C-alpha cells in the first residue's frame, strides 16, 4: 500500500546444482582423458605450470572483487528503492487536496516537499558514491587483466599457440585463463555503464513512470550472466572443486 | 580562560565569610547587614574564590544536561521511527478493510462470511497498531517533558547556608538573589550560561513543535474507522485527551492552552496556525488513500526538526565544552 519500503523479489542466484554437478564431472573426465593423450604427445615447457598457478591466484582476487560488487549491488538496490519511493510520493505531495486536515497547518506542503527533496538529494549523492565504488571494482578487474597480459608478453618466454592451448590434467590452459579474465572484465565494465546511466536517469528525470523498469534492470544485471561466470570459474579453478 | 587553578581550588578550604568580606566594596557593604550572606556569592561581582568553586560545578552540570539532551534526542528518534511503522501498519489494515468488498479472493471467496471475518481480523490489527502508535506518542511526550526539565536546569545555584565550610551547588534556586549564572562569566571557554540555555531552548522548540504536529496526525490516524463504525461513534477530536494525564504532560511541555482548554494547535516554526476553529470540525468523510499517504509522509518527514541544525548545535556545544557528542 505504502511505497515506503516495499519488499522486492530478488532474483534467485542458486544454480541448478544437480545439473551443474553432472556437467562438471563430465568435464573432469574429459580432462583426465586429456592428460593421457596430451602428456604423451608433448612436454609442457618448464615454468608453464607456475604461470597457470599465478593465473589461478588472480582469479581468486577476481572472486573477491565480485563479492565486493555483490555487496555494492544490494546497497545500490536499497538506495534505489528509497529514492523511487520518494519520487513516487512527490506527485501526491504536490497536490494540496491530498493534505486532508493537515492543510490547516500553514506552510506544511512546502515544508514536507522541501524535506522530501532534501532526503532525495541525500540518497542521490550516496548513490553516486556507491557508483564510484562500483567503478573501483571495474578498475581492479582491469588491472588484474592487464597484469595477466603483461605476464605473458613481458615474461622471458613467450608461449607458442600450442602452449597457450595446452591443458594439463584438470588445469586450465593459458588461453582459458586470459580469456576468462577478459570476459569477466568486459561483463562488469558494461554492467557498470548500465548502472551509471540508470543513476543519472534517475537524477535527471525524476519521473515515476519508468521506475519499475529501471529497478528491474538494476536487479537483472543483464551483462553479468551468472551461469557463464560460474562456468569460467569451474574451468579455471576445477582443482578446488574436486 | 579555563585555568587549572579553578580545578585545584576544589580541594582547597572553602571561603569563610570573614575572608570574603575583604574582597570588594559591595560585599563589605552586605557584610554589615549580615542578613543575606548568601546573596553576596551570587551578586554580580563574585569573589574569586567562590568563582573558582562555582565554575567546575557549573561545568559538570552543563556537561550532564547536554549529554542528557543528546540521549533524549536519540530516544525521540527511536520512538518516532517505531511510531512510523505502527502508523503504516495501521493505515494498511484500515485500507485493506475498505477494499475488502472489492477484493478478489479467488477460490476462498465462497467461504461463508469470509469477508466479514477478514474485516474483523483487520480491525483488531488496526486497533492493536493504534495502541502501539499511542504508546510511541507517549514516549515522545515524555522525551519533550524531560527536555523541558533539562533546559530549565542549566544554571548552578549555591546550596546550603552561606559561610558553611562546605560549599554545595544545586540546580534549584534557594535564594531569589542567586541567579545561578555565575554573574555571566564564561563557563568553559567563551560562553556564559544564557548562551547554553538559548541553544537548549532552540532544540526544545523543534521537538515540541514536532510533538504537536505528531499529535495532530495521531488524532487523525486513530479516528480512522470503518464506514459503519464511524457513523456510530464520533471519533476523536483535537480537544480529547488521548491518554489519562496527557494534558498535564502537555502543560509541562507548554503545549496546552489554559484559555481554550485544549492543546495548542500544531504549527511550523515561524508560522502561525491557520485557523484554530477548523481543527474542531472534521469532515465526516473518511480520508482517501492519498491523504493517508501524505499523513504518513508528514510523520516521517519531521518537518519541524532540522536535523542538520541539531547536529550543529551538539557539535558547537561539544567544541565549547571540549567534549565530543556523537
UniProtKB/TrEMBL annotation, chain A:
It comes from the Eukaryota. This is Uncharacterized protein. It comes from Protea cynaroides. The lineage of its organism: Eukaryota, Viridiplantae, Streptophyta, Embryophyta, Tracheophyta.
Automatic annotation (TrEMBL), chain B:
Residues 1-29 are annotated as: Disordered. This is Uncharacterized protein. It comes from Protea cynaroides.
